[in-house]
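Q: Convert this sequence to structure tokens.
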Amino acid sequence: MDETTYRILDVLSRNLGKPISIHELTSKIQEAYGAAYYANIHEKIGQLSRERMIELLRAGRSSLVFLNFENYLLIDLLAEMELKRKRDFLSGKKEMQMLMMEMDTLVHNMPFIKSVTLMSPQRNAKLNKAELLFCINKSDRKSTEETKISINRITANLQKAYNIRIDHLILEDKDFVDLLRSNENNPAKEMLHNKISALHPQNFWMSISGAIRGGIKIVAEESQTNPAKITEEDLVFNLARFGYVELGSKIKQGRLICIGYIIAAIMFKNDARRMDAIPVILAKNSANYNLVLFLARKYGFEGKILGILAALRNLIGNKMANIDEPVRLLEAMKIKEIRADKKGIKEKLRLYNVA
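A:
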């Protein structure tokens, strides 16, 4: 792959789902790489268009550029792009190379691993961290849970061996696509702008390609949500959206934010009154527990969320689908439970007509 093709694909894939003109593409390449020439970009766009790797759509005097997922060969080109990203990232980082080599060796032959992706790799490396997305194939409940426990064990051992913080998100393929198509801010959508698909990149892009060809609109988010900076207005709006309306609160339209980020924001503020909202919104909504556990690991509230989930399982577990698995996963990781106020949770659930 020549450098110009790589830079075009790099920028287009980071801005997936967003209309971008050739002029804008040139500007973004210049911003990312320090130099870009419109004539060269225009010529390469023409070539890629003839090869059906990209589509051009006229919009007034401009031409908008899109990746053409109808062309099966695009997947191989995007996989090649990911491998170059990986090589460039790991160049000169011996410790990170050893970490990735050992991780690849350990998970390569695990039957249900579909792909492994580094999220925000450059920023996290500077902080001596790694954030990993494991996409896994759907299987029976027992096999899926065993795969998740194995991944937890592997990342915990690598964390100790290499003295690096590792946070990981495990998603079945359907859940991954559902998060990408969601209109809520969530980590899956936000990682598309800055990631490296490090293991089985073809599988990663096949999932996205299949969703887009199936009519699902996927839009990469350029910025990441910081739970500590979620505004009070957005917090109140989303709590109400999830079925928890606070007395006297004025609700205004705000950003749509996933339930995991809302829980993390409440944990950050450590407001005892607001903490009562967490069991209520979990009980009233079908939460993605894999996402909740990832954020609990990342922001250090695993013990608290285990306490809340254990209390909910005891009180209304028969009404909450899939609540057993996150409790078992946290217990398998030997997370020390911070016991929740079961009596207070029970009263709050009754107040909100959950139990």
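The beta strands are 54-59, 62-67, 113-119, 129-136, 165-172, 195-199.
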